[in-house]
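Researcher: Sequence recovery benchmark, item below. Answer with residues only.
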C-alpha cells in the first residue's frame, strides 16, 4: 500500500464527493481515519474503501450490504469468499436493476400513449 495520506478535503476532492459525504461514511463506521494532531488523515486503504462504497451506492446497495461485503475483505483466503458473496449480490442487483428498467420503460410507454391520446382529443376541440 502507498504511504500517501489524505485530508478529508483532499480525499473528497479526488473522488468527487463532499467532505460531508466522507465524514458521513466515517460516522457509519465504513472509514477509519487515523489522527495526525487534530486532523483526520485517510490512507490508501480508506481511499480504496471509499471508492468501493461510492461504487456500491451507485449500483444501489444499502450501506449495510456494502459493510457486510467489505467486512469479508480481511480474510486470508485471497478474498475468494468475499468475491463469491459479492458476485451473488451483484448478480441479484443486476436482475433487480433490469426489472426496474423494464418497469420504467413500461411507465414511459404508458405515459406517452396517454399524452398522445390527450393531444389528439385537445386538437379535436381547438378552434381553427
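Model:
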Amino acid at each position: 500500500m502507498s504511504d500517501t495520506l489524505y485530508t478529508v478535503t483532499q480525499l473528497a476532492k479526488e473522488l468527487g464527493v463532499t467532505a460531508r459525504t466522507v465524514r458521513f461514511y466515517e460516522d457509519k463506521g465504513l472509514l477509519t481515519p487515523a489522527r495526525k494532531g487534530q486532523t483526520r488523515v485517510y490512507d490508501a486503504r480508506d481511499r480504496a474503501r471509499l471508492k468501493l462504497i461510492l461504487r456500491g451506492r451507485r449500483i444501489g446497495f444499502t450501506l449495510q450490504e456494502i459493510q457486510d461485503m467489505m467486512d469479508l475483505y480481511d480474510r486470508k483466503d485471497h478474498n475468494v469468499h468475499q468475491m463469491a458473496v459479492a458476485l451473488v449480490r451483484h448478480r441479484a442487483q443486476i436482475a433487480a436493476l433490469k426489472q426496474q428498467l423494464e418497469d420504467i420503460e413500461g411507465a414511459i410507454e404508458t405515459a406517452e400513449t396517454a399524452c398522445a391520446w390527450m393531444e389528439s382529443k385537445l386538437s379535436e376541440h381547438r378552434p381553427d
